[in-house]
Amino acid sequence: MHAYVILSKGGAPAERSLLLNYTGGRFSTMRKSFLNGHFLVFFSSVIVLTAGMLSTIASGVLTSRGSPVDVPNVPIQSTKSLGLVSDITSLQTFLAASGYAAASASARNLTDPPFILGSWAVAQFVVPPPTGAGTNGTIIVPTTGIQTMSNCGPAFSQSATLANGQWTLQATWHSCTISLTTPAQGSEDLFGVEPVPSCTENQQQSPSFQPVLFWFLSGDTQGLSMTFCQPSGIAYNVLAEADLSTGLLTSVSVVDNNVAQNNFTGPPFNGQVLNGVYFGQTNDRFVNARSVAVQTALPDAIYRATRGFPGGLGAMIAQDNGADLTDLTNKTYTQFLSFAAQQSYFFDSVTTINSSQRNWELRLWVYPIAAHSFAAALVLIGLIAAWVHTMHMKARRNVYLSCDPSTMAATLSMTSESGFPRLLKAGDEDAAMGRSLKGLRFGISRRTWQVVAEGEEEGTLSFGIGSAGAGQTRDVRLSSLGSSMGTPTPGSTQTVFDAGDHQGLLAGAAPYGRRESHVDPFTTPGASRSHSLWLRIAQRSIQENDLVWPAWALPLPAIPASTIEDLLLRALRFPSLVCKYYDEIEIRDTFEGVIQRPWDSPMWLHLIRGRWLLLQLSDFTLELWDLDEVEYTHPAATFVGLEGFVNGVVHTEEVDGVEIILSTSLFRAYKFSPDLPFRKEMRAVQPALIPTDCFHGYSSVKARKGRLLAFAGSAGDPLRACIMYESTHRNVELAFGNQVFEYQRTLDICMREDVLFVARHRNMELYLSTDVKHALEISGTTDRGVSPFQSFSYPGEPLLHSPQFHSATPVYFNAPDGSVALAHFVDDEWQAIVVSPQLHSSNPKHRDYKIENVHSIGSAPGALYGTRTGENGYRCTALFGSCLTLHYGKPWDVQQSPAPGAGFSERGPNRSHTLVSWKIPDSEIDLPRPNCVAIDEAVGICIAGMGSGRIWIGDAVPGAKPKRFDLAPLPGRMPHPDPRWPLLPPSYFWDTFHPGPLSPSDPVDEVVPGWSTAVDHYWPWRNNPEAYGGILWFVEHFMGIPGPARSCLFRAKALFEKSGPFGLPILEEFVDVNGRIFRINTDTEWITVRRFVDGITIEDIIDCLKDNRVHQLTSHDEDWMSDYMAIYQHMHWYRIFRHPKS
């Protein structure tokens, strides 16, 4: 019936009206109706399905549960009463207690004996045997109990002195002092227990009631632990609860302390408990022997328990000043006192007392949440059903039917005078009928009550791509049917939609749909129709054509129609740029735009929303440029408060705009929230660069997820990667894994839902998000770190170069879910590393991540100055000394991959995957800025910053009207290669060292024949921390290690010999980097770096050079070339600007 509702509204395409089919089952109906936007049908199906499901799960609100049933006045026999036993002086009870304590300390998991629970000892009673329903019950008995407390604590001060084969131990505690001696036993551990009669408040007491001292001395570490204990006890009237099955106590609760007086609570004990260790000498040798046994067994039990601790007694004393040993002593002594109290302070006495018994029996319960949820669901279903019924009534009021369409004859009568049924043939399937009716829109005529195609009544149907001019043509399919069609109604403004495929429109044709009165549908009620139209086209194109779509342009309903149109037109023009052969690559002699800034000023740039360019200048000014402007004359906004050079940026799309977070080299991070319109969005705003927040101590921001920020440097340490919670500014360090060389930078971080991927120079490490979040929750003023659960090295290359994680893994890798892709440049090749889980598991630790493959994606030989990969990894841009290139990602056939750096034949395949190449004007005198390059892969805009102040803007799919710009001629001087290193050396290390003639006394400071430490004499700029090409620049940029660094020793023969392939010297030098020694060999071909074993000094190197044994010093690593681009740039600058003839 819903098809007739749609037809009555008019303008319905065939697939949503005539071809509508809701007979494929309940779930199929729900899916189709939701996709078609027929929400009344969808909710009707949901109601029926939900009501059926609820009827089957109604019994789930009931459950059987054990419920307590109390039985009062159950008489039982008590077999003990509070009072001293008659044979307490025989010490048999205390000997038994020491044996239990020893067994408990050794076994560690012994349960408390009957009628003892922790520090409680209660009078014994007869637990009735479990029978019937009482099997899982308990008995609650009013009785008397004693709570004993050991009151143990570590000594306030202690010392151990060894002299003449004797240990002298001294300790103080409160008012107690003690000194004792014991023979030394070599490396054997010593222990014991001693009475402490010297306490001020206990001097008048018998030794049996005085405090005692437990002492332990490690023979290996000579660590000492001395614990004082002052036992005490209190008698209470209690309620003791015992399990009927085991007879063991489950709980003891105090009623009061009004216990009847007896020989324990009164004289002679007066409520005190014996220390159980010292009793004084008697005439009975058996009693004396038991006393000695107790004194020996109790500390021995504690000592034996320490053997289970890693490292034994010595390690236990050393950890936290012996706190664990004190706790162990307190626990063992308490068990001893409780057992002794139960055996010594309750004598035999049989009485009958009333108790209560609690049995657990099964009862039927109703889940409150389930019952309320069930009732709420029924109410909700009723409300939705009432709403659906009401909306159905309103929708059917406007349905125009000439008869009840329940029969075939009635349906045929509704199309008897229409022409479009002749487009259909008997035997056509749904797909064939859909193709025949494609582009037609249908409705029910209010004049004839026939189902007709729009324009059929008026005879003015128009189909095809583009405008037909003043005279609109009828669709050839309908014109051939011979149906009766009149002339168009004068002044009609009926919308007639094109039938052609969307690619024709996106290639430059008129919009889908026009009005016969030539009214633009994008300006009639109007903008909403335009937006919904482009929204549908974009959704269909993205799904069918796998378009590269930017994350900033999602979700689609929030993006303006003009932006969607621009992105679609660009996306469908990109395939035309792909060329099969290398010599067919489009090479453009100029760019589509340029921004002119002061000389030597561009330092960093970044592109936002394919329209807004963030640019930092050498005076630390931050500028925002609008690339949609016709001319680039001045920035849209500026900010002059940055501290340091920008070294990281992340930006996220928020509801009210863009949030941008920048980090700088001086460990500052700034947050901006400007209102930035989308590309081609005609919205008048005045954006401002005003920081909304600032974070101190953080550098090199890499990623953001929610309110978590990932930094590669923090707390002033460029190697300390961390995750910071933006709201509280708490952070947790991403510590290095085991057996990982820690002296390496963090290059990029990818934050997924449950795993954090961290790319360092030599290793990739994986961290659990839950570990990070837990550490942030408990993090306080102290630093906390989390360790990776998996770490592995990179295949093939020992170090990674200029890596960048993709926000999403490109589909052309065919990687499983949960994979990540990391793009990087090695030599002249653009590669991607794909890391994939091998197992499916909800716990990331069990997924066994591995590097699936290393894909060669593109190649671009030349002096590389910077690369940027698009956020999704489909395209990248590379900045060279003479050109800027745009590449598309597509893995090579490994069999056909060119060798790294190899050239291309004249008609060879385009394995570089280059789409466009722009020649940089004046490249013979201008110089690109290192890493001053940006890209928006979906828009196709690439940007490069030059030392001359020119910011070149390349557009792979430019508009019809190019930007206007005039280039000012460049001055004769050269730009600075990198203003971050202001000092330019007068010579280079493979050209000349000392500009003057060498004297007969040379070489200076020769420590070994042919080797000199006079680096600063011959090479005065080499160790200057501001020198471009100096050793600090070399270590930080080429080796990827933060300074300080100093060249200490070099091969002096290079001053006199010309042994290189071009008659230039080969330099060898030893460099100290933060206490680690590296050997660097430099010639005109390449540079190699080796690291020596930790602990090697320059003096060790000199000694080995004297004996010609330097080759015996083992080096850790094969290679330390972490970033080739720095050397390429230095060689390019030197060759062109410093020494053209070299």
Can you characterise this structure?
Helix 4 packs parallel to helix 5. Helix content is 21%, strand content 30%. Strands 2, 3, 4, 5, 13, 14 and 15 form a 7-stranded antiparallel beta sheet that branches. The protein has a 6-stranded antiparallel beta sheet with strand order 50-51-52-53-54-55. About 8% of the residues have low confidence. It is built from 19 helices and 55 strands. A hairpin with a 5-residue loop joins strand 13 and strand 14. The chain is α+β, with helices and mostly antiparallel strands and 1142 residues long.
Question: Gist?
Answer:
The protein is an alpha+beta fold. It contains 19 helices and 55 strands. Strands 2, 3, 4, 5, 13, 14 and 15 form a 7-stranded antiparallel beta sheet that branches.
Helix content: 10-25%
Unreliable segments (pLDDT under 50, ≥5 consecutive)? Answer: 457-527, 893-907
Distance between the termini: 86 Å
The strand count comes to 55
Tally of DSSP helical segments: 19
Radius of gyration: 44 Å
Overall SS class: alpha+beta
What summary fits the major beta sheet?
Answer: 7 strands, antiparallel
Mass-distribution shape: flat
| Proportion of residues in β-strands | 25-35%
* Mean pLDDT over all positions: 80
